[in-house]
Amino acid sequence: MKKLLLTILFAVIAISNYAQKQEITGKVINPKNKASIPYATITCKSENGTIITGAITNDDGYFTLSKLPKTKLLLSFQFIGYKTLVQSIDLTEKDIKYNIGTIYLQEDNNQLNEVEIQAESSTVVQKIDRKIINVNNDLIATGASSLEMLENIPSVDIDHLSGTVSLRGNENVSVLINGKPSNINTEQLLKQLPSNSVKSIEIITNPSAKFNPEGMSGIINIILKKNTEIGFNGSITIGIKHSKNTKPDIALNTNYKVGITNFYANYSTSWGDYETFNNLQRTDKDLLQNIDFLNNSSSHFFKIGVDINLNSKSILSLYTDQNFDNNSLATNTLVTQNSNTQFNNLRFSKYKQKDETYNIDYVYNFDKKGQSLELEFNYSSTNNPENTINSELIDNSSKENNYTNNILDTRKLWLFNIDYTIPIQSGKIEFGLEYRKQNFYNKIITDQEAQTSNSPTLQPIGNTSLDYDRSIYSGYFNFNKEYEKIAFQIGFRVEQFNLDASFFNTNQGNTNLKDNLFNIYPSASINYSLSEKDNIQLAYSRRVDRPSAYQVTPIQEWASPLTIARGNRNLTPQFTNSIELNYTKTITKGYISLGTFYRRTNDKIGRILERDALNPDKSISSFTNYDFADSYGIELSSSFKPIKWWTLRPSFETYIQDSQGILNNQFETIKNTITKARISNSFKASKKLSFQFSTIYRGKSENIQYTVQPYTMVNIGARLKVLDGKGKISIRGTDIFNNVNFDYTTNNPFNQKGKYILEYDSIYLGFSYNFGSSKNKRKGRKYRDNNESQGGIF
């Protein structure tokens, strides 16, 4: 591996010596407020109108056009809400690198309302390797959690039964925060993260070799807000959400930028009760199980950081995230048969979780434009102690179900990476190294009420523990090139994966698990511009999903009084080859996007469900590897304006995938078809008042264990600007017809039908206020659309 990386390094250095020729650079800004205009389109044509090449401005408004002929060129600058500007340039032999300077785009008054509407709802930016959904001012997401917000994102689905997030119909997706993995369970993380702290969502379905290959269906990268305005600035949001229970929330975002330093601090908190019901009935016998979940939760999230411009070429950034989450969960399970109570089980759990992240990032920009070196170190830890009391409320003669669990749960993640970018003629080369180490430690101490004691006394009956270490050493190489109408990238990532785990159980003793794997993950994509308005993309990547600690631990876990879950230490990783084809067409005041994909997964990880030999009314759930599984699908989305004050965004997705498993010693395969349709309407009633209305339909879903019936959800939102635009009053209604209650049936290992009743329908009322001394404040703020709030490198 070392020899391979050194070879790549020397090759890159040699290529970097190849100088760029005939290059045009510049910056596009708004002349009224001097704000940069990101994602503006630059088209380069010859005198006869033939398209030579093109570019899109970056987040700071800069652009580069490379590999240009020595002749007279016509440059066209376009961005929605602005008048198109055409400029002529005559390149000569001396103009190897020509800086065109600053390009000023004038506002188009005919499109003024259009820009305002887009600033009040989600907008989509299609880049070469990803789709960026800006949710900063999405009315439907106001006051929601990040998990609820993702429900509105095309290609993303939320399973409200299990809480899992899916991308293109598959739950094996890597969810990142500012490009970094997290120790926290994805569902828990997204529930804790308020939507008002999120700037944008990046959907990357076939990531390049620069990204970790984990996640069969790709990556969902959540970009958080960070203000960088000059002076002291901030915003405060206060809201209250009401459903069956009432839940307040508060968020504060501040920054102070002076000289070469920008300090920023964010805080958010929420608290309240969440209640869920699950009614499950066996249809082959009169056995009814009613489960009531009541969770009292409070969370506090802090983020504090500083960016320091050490000089004109280098930036040092430091930040820390601190999250405190307290939960008290009461689960009451009542089981009746033939109208007679069999048992009533009460399970009470208290969690006090603390999550912390520390990040240091250094970026050095060389004299050569586009050449940079980045060094980054990231450490995160999670400490989640839990105390659980399980009691039988009906049959006091049996002490089997009266016990306590004291659980120690800690997770640690270390990440160090080096990334180097070298520009070449009409392209760039990227390569880097990364080291990841993850430790997961879990210990359960169980005490059971004495069987013969007349008074409630506890005695130890044993304990279990899991110590799970994995280390990943990786290196990557990416080559990007543009040639006239074609842009492509090709690369690969090499990874050495080491696993060292030990399991202990009082009855079973010690069990050890070790694994060492070396793999190569290639990726490639090609983009072809049929015209200024038509683009085709073809992309491929190889992905991996490694078994989690939960999936390999042989320790049995309580899922419900009639369900036991345990892992399989013999599980191996599953590998996926994914290919996709996308077409995007720019239309008047909008776009249309059509895509299709195919995935083949080898050594597919799937479930095993069987009846408990000791109790035929109980089921045991575990995991195993199957030969392979296929999935494919089609996606259609669009955004356009029927009239100047109305923006319409419809989308449709359908996915077909194999679901495999062993049920009662019988191998089963089910071809599951998932259909989802969304339509979002944004209306601009006036300069101060906006409305949004959306409908989501999710079709019937089926896997080897259960079938979920379809549902339709309707959401509404409104926002009124007050106090000269500094304040905003928001109101949102989620699932206003209370349809998100899931009816489902199971055929294996028992015939059952059930219904999940969630506390999902709600109404939210919030007020936000912007304050500070920003020199960038202006009447035309809508054009910036918070482009300055992300920052540069995390």
UniProtKB/TrEMBL annotation:
Keywords: Cell outer membrane, Membrane, Receptor, Signal. It is found in: Cell outer membrane. Residues 144-218 form the TonB-dependent receptor plug domain. InterPro entries: Beta-barrel_TonB_sf, CarboxyPept-like_regulatory, OMP_b-brl_3, Plug_dom, Plug_dom_sf. One of its GO terms (cellular component) is cell outer membrane. Residues 775-794 are annotated as: Disordered. It comes from the Bacteria. Residues 365-769 form the Outer membrane protein beta-barrel domain. Residues 1-21 form the signal peptide. Pfam families: CarbopepD_reg_2 (PF13715), OMP_b-brl_3 (PF14905), Plug (PF07715). SUPFAM superfamilies: Carboxypeptidase regulatory domain-like, Porins. PANTHER family: PLUG DOMAIN-CONTAINING PROTEIN, TONB-DEPENDENT RECEPTOR-LIKE BETA-BARREL DOMAIN-CONTAINING PROTEIN. This is TonB-dependent receptor. The lineage of its organism: Bacteria, Pseudomonadati, Bacteroidota, Flavobacteriia, Flavobacteriales.
